Amino acid sequence: MRITSITGKIIYIVGAFGLILALNFFVIDRLVNASLDVLIVAVLNVAYVLVGTRTFRGAEENREDPRPWWRATARPAAGFWLGGVLAVLAFISCVGALASKPETAFVPAVACIAYALLAAYYLHSSYRLRTLDTAP
User: Fold this and answer.
1) Tens of pLDDT, residues 43-85
2) DSSP result, the chain
3) Cα–Cα dist 131/126, whole Å
4) Which of 71, 49, 69, 56 is CA-nearest to residue 126?
């Protein structure tokens, strides 16, 4: 299954985010402690982003073959924008973790790590796409 339309991509993003939110509120939060809850939700969020990058396709992309593991977006600019926003969110979360008391720093620290991993993935992807565009 490949998602190629803007509408389909928005439905996937909103739907998956809503599903994770509902799962967290109604199931995960009630079954595990707060620390494990934060880790589970972070893993689910990273997983839904990675599934999205595997299924989304740009207009000029091959829709039959799977994307290379490193490719996150159709064009470099999209990955640079997403990676930049995620890097800013990682920085804000890191500052929040460092400014928090040790007993409350876990949530922003996990958010910082998750955002930083996703930012690195998108920025790496765009860097490679940019070098493909400029290669002789």
Assistant:
1) 999 999 999 999 999 888 888 888 899 999 999 999 999 999 9
2) --B-SHHHHHHHHHHHHHHHHHHIIIIIHHHS-HHHHHHHHHHHHHHHHHHHHHHB--TTS-SSSPPPTT--SSSHHHHHHHHHHHHHHHHHHHHHHHHS-GGG-HHHHHHHHHHHHHHHHHHHHHHHHHHHHH--
3) 8
4) 71
Phi first, then psi, for residue 59 (nearest 5°) are -60, -40
pLDDT band at 135 (very low <50, low <70, confident <90, very high): low
* CB 122 within 8 Å of CB 72: yes
pTM of the model: 0.89
126, 80 in Cβ contact below 8 A?
Answer: yes
Model pLDDT for residues 95-131, shown as the tens digit of each residue:
999 999 999 999 999 999 999 999 999 999 999 999 9
- CA 24, CA 41: separation in Å to the nearest integer? 7
Integer CA distances (angstroms), 107 to 16, 23, 36, 91, in order: 21, 18, 10, 14
What is the spatial distance between Cα 44 and Cα 126, in angstroms, rounded to a whole number?
23
